[in-house]
Amino acid sequence: MEKALEFLKKAGTFYLATVDENGQPRVRPFGAVCAIDGRLCLITSNQKDVYKQIMKNPKVEISGMVGGEWIRLAAEAHEDVRRESRVAMLEANPALKGMYSPDDGKIAVLYLKNATATFCSFTAAPETITF
Asked: What is the pLDDT of residues 21-47, one digit of tens each?
């Protein structure tokens, strides 16, 4: 998990894909990530379509690139409803404090479960980890 977390942090912006109610793939940029209780976590608003799509179908894929290397990460995203997780996410990503607060009723912390991350480049064999 640590290698995937560090890669996504280094990428800065990575892309999360979900599927909408009509089976259409939807991809959007994300940038906030951290580890909470040994789990890789993301943040979104429970008011957004991405949240609603994940609640209906937790299977997601993430891709990001750093230089000539990229990650493909397939996982299930599940909500962590604990207040301490919302606080931890905002502490790890202080730029979000202008948009969210732990008790605003909008913040949704998502942790990844059953994840497989594949690290690729043009110059080396792919490396796959699970967490």
From this structure: 999 999 999 999 999 999 999 999 999
Number of domains forming the structure of the chain: 1
**Domain holding 102: CATH number?**
2.30.110.10
Name residue 18's beta-bridge partners.
26
User: How far is the C-alpha of 117 from the C-alpha of 28, rounded, in Å?
Assistant: 19
Closest CA to 46 of 100, 94, 82, 90: 100
pTM assigned to the model: 0.94
Token pair 């892309």 is found at: 15
Cβ burial 94-111 (10 Å sphere, 16+ → b, else e)? eebeeebebeeeebbbbb
